[in-house]
């Protein structure tokens, strides 16, 4: 018997209803669980009791089985004859942990057939600077995207019609609900009226790279200024299909924010030294995620700092590193301090990982006033540079951890379709989340341009909702 809950939940036991049979307690029983319905693990559960029920139609006895809490979407129960033939019902018992459910209303917001018709990236930045859960209803949210398709999609066949690919775009959502009429997508037009990237590299380093473009990382609003630290990317024709690029540095893009929103055309760009080799020999860069522990961000226990997370590349994939700076001095790189494993130092080369596995994009969210026992939540895509099908989460007691083994929350099913599909770069969107919950997204892509053309619905974010169950 295989059971699909339709989402992933913590499970602590089960009851099996069957006929009153003395063999029920001793019947060989095997319970397995999985997030994806393919990779099964055995639950170390044992029979706890066999309680006789009277006067119940088709439920003459109850066999209760309990053990340690597990996290699963699928359960497989195998029991042998003669008891197996008499089973009339199986109930599963909830446990403490995290439930993860698909959030179709947010997923559908980005399923479009005209103009902006697909992208990855999808960072969300509150333009009012408050990042606390549930604070988006009366404000505006800026979404940042990476490579984007612009063009029409046939609604019947889902085929793209003469699309254009540009390297970054944005969207602005009024309010905290995923209403199609409340979102506006933004990109530039070149001198000939063709779609063009919103932010085009204009720094000295970028000018030396033929065909350079920006991949946007996370963004943040400090005071009345927006900041983002995009990667300077150049083409690499020797890379495999879908990965023909190379990173050349990190720039800083800033622009004023006023009552009308972000002033894109007034952006100021500068090269940074935030892409470098650390003392441990690993390539390091910053800007993958921001977390503001400030009064303006609305956090429960502010310390006045903005935390800037980044990555160190290694043989087994990227690891997570962190710097921080007082909010008032955010734009002053001399004020940044880097975590060396014991203290904050001005020497950026001394930075060391605070988690040994992370995806290239992720999020870090203060949750001390939202969840019990999880002061900080790191949402990411587990396995191989984030190119894995597990949406996972670290929880820790401080912005630098310690972060123990990841909690594997959700198996993304899209790669099961084939078509070269892969999933990557999960992250949370706290201010768009309901109190006590975390709305999270992950990217879906394909290595095949032919599949992009035939199936426009592939290349768009999917959303899930994470909530604590106690």
Feature tags:
single chain, about 475 residues, mainly beta, Jelly Rolls, Tachylectin-2, Chain A, 2 domains, seven-stranded antiparallel beta sheet, six-stranded antiparallel beta sheet, 3 helices, about 50% strand, FA58C, DUF4185, F5/8 type C domain-containing protein
Please, could you describe this protein's structure?
The protein has 470 residues and is mainly beta. The chain folds into two domains: 94 residues, Jelly Rolls; 284 residues, 5 Propeller (Tachylectin-2, Chain A). It is built from three helices and 36 strands. Strands 17, 18, 19, 20, 21, 22 and 23 form a seven-stranded antiparallel β-sheet that branches. Strands 1, 2, 3, 4, 5 and 6 form a six-stranded antiparallel β-sheet that branches. A hairpin with a 6-residue loop joins strand 26 and strand 27. It is globular, with a radius of gyration of 25 Å. Pfam families: DUF4185.
Give a summary of the structure in a few sentences.
The protein is mainly beta and 470 residues long. 3% of the residues lie in helices and 48% in strands.
Helix/strand layout:
Blueprint: E1 2-18, E2 29-34, E3 41-42, E4 46-52, E5 61-79, E6 89-94, E7 97-102, H1 104-109, E8 116-119, E9 123-126, E10 140-145, E11 148-153, E12 160-166, E13 169-174, E14 183-186, E15 188-189, E16 195-196, H2 204-207, E17 213-215, E18 219-222, E19 225-228, E20 231-235, E21 245-258, E22 261-262, E23 268-271, E24 275-277, E25 283-293, E26 305-312, E27 319-326, E28 337-339, E29 344-345, E30 363-366, E31 376-382, E32 390-396, E33 407-411, E34 421-428, E35 437-446, H3 449-454, E36 462-469
């Amino acid at each position: 018997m295989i059971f699909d809950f339709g989402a992933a939940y913590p499970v602590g036991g089960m009851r099996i209803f069957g006929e009153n049979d003395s063999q029920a307690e001793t019947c060989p029983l095997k319970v397995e669980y999985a997030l994806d319905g393919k990779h099964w693990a055995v639950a170390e559960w044992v029979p706890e009791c066999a309680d006789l029920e009277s006067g119940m139609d088709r439920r003459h006895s109850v066999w209760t089985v309990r053990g340690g809490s597990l996290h699963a979407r699928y359960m497989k129960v195998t029991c042998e004859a003669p008891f197996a033939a008499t089973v009339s019902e199986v109930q599963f018992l909830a446990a403490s942990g995290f439930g993860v459910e698909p959030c179709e209303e947010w997923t559908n917001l980005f399923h479009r057939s005209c103009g902006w018709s697909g992208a990855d990236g999808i960072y969300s930045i509150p333009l009012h600077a408050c990042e606390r859960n549930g604070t988006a209803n009366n404000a505006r949210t800026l979404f940042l995207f990476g490579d984007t398709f612009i063009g029409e999609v046939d609604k019947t066949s889902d085929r793209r019609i003469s699309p254009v690919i540009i390297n970054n775009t944005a969207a602005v959502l009024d309010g905290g609900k995923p209403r199609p009429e409340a979102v506006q997508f933004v990109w530039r037009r070149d001198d000939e009226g063709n779609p063009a990237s919103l932010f085009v590299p204009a720094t000295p380093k970028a000018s030396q790279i033929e065909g350079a473009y920006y991949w946007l990382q996370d963004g943040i609003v400090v005071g009345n200024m927006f900041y983002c630290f995009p990667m300077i990317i150049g083409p690499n024709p020797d890379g495999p299909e879908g990965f023909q690029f190379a990173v050349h540095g990190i720039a800083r893009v800033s622009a004023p924010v006023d009552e009308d929103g972000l002033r894109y055309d007034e952006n100021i760009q500068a090269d940074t030294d935030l892409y470098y080799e650390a003392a441990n020999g690993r390539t390091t860069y910053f800007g993958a995620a921001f977390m503001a522990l400030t009064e303006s961000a609305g956090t429960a226990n502010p310390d006045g700092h903005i935390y800037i997370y980044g990555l160190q590349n290694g043989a087994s994939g990227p690891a997570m590193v962190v710097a921080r700076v007082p909010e008032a001095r955010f734009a002053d790189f001399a004020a940044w301090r880097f975590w060396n494993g014991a203290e904050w130092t001005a020497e950026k080369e001394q930075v060391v990982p605070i988690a040994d596995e992370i995806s290239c994009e992720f999020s870090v969210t203060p949750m001390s006033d939202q969840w019990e026992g999880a002061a900080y939540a790191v949402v990411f895509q587990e396995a191989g540079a984030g190119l894995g099908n597990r949406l996972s989460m670290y929880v820790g007691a401080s912005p630098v951890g310690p972060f123990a083994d990841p909690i594997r929350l959700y198996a993304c099913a899209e790669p099961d379709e084939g078509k070269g599909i892969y999933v990557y770069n999960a992250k949370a969107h706290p201010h768009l989340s309901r109190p006590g919950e975390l709305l999270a997204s992950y990217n879906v892509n394909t290595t095949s341009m032919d599949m992009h053309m035939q199936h426009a619905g592939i290349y768009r974010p999917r959303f899930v909702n994470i909530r604590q169950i106690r």
